[in-house]
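Chain and conformation:
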Amino acid sequence: MNIPDALRAQKQSDTARYFGIPSEDIIVDSSHCQWQNAFATIHKQSYGLNECYRPATKQHQLVLYRGATEHGEVSFNKEAWRKYTKRNNEWYIAPAGGEGSSWRWEHNDTQQSSQIFRILLPITELEAKALIPKMGIKDDFMLQLALQLKAEMMTPSLFGPSYGETISTLLSLHVQKHYAGITTANDLISTTFTSAKKKALQDYIMANLHAELSLDGIAKVVSLSKFHFARVFKNTFGMAPHQYIFLARMQLLETLLTESDAPLNLLAEKVGFAYSNNLIRAFRKFKGMTPMQYRKSMTTRTKVPNLIKK
């Protein structure tokens, strides 16, 4: 592999930080490509030691081995050692999180030219629970995508960062389809949140009704892309996220109108409305009357003056 000297010298600290790889072993990485949701690096396989440790990453990791056949032992997540064999152009999938992996190998003179291609993919593209460490994957489609990423790192195209990010997204979807615990689109559509995740979402939404609740922000609570999150949310709660947030805000306003004499402009801030007029329209849609009409209708309520304070 002929790599230009300028790129050979590009031993970025990001690679050392993500993977614990000595800078002298780094050939090239994607630091200069300005990708937002992916990172990739190519480095030499160092055989100066008998054993090495690779830390866990916050993103899913795809690892392509390129070189002579290698034999050794590996321990995933501090579990028992087990034998492995690496062959040219085989993939290893390392899910996000965990305890990292430890490797020890048999020495072979032909291994000095071996290289490792590592690709980090965003965790929001694949649920961590759907992936397990897996070695020995032969996949020509993934190989071709990896070679396109390599070419982009070596000589960025005129398309800018979007080209590399598109390839990374294709890799994510391909791994999800063929190697995760999700096999069809229906598997994704039928998924619902666990009780713990459902409660975490409810708590997050209720604690932030006063603020702007974006789909991206809520989806991060359960580590999903907003595309998958909206579908799973509807399956779990029976309504879209924006509908759930609207109802939660109106129900909170009902309570505040009943238990407080605070002015409407202050209540509007408490339920995430910048203007009282917008709140009045929203409440009329929800209840069929204005907030003040509702407050007056609650003649049997117990007032709690000054419950709401700035």
Remarks:
- Residues 1-12, 182-190, 304-310 have pLDDT under 50 and may be disordered.
- The chain has three domains: 5-179, 187-238, 243-297.
- Residues 268 and 274 are 7 Å apart (CA to CA).
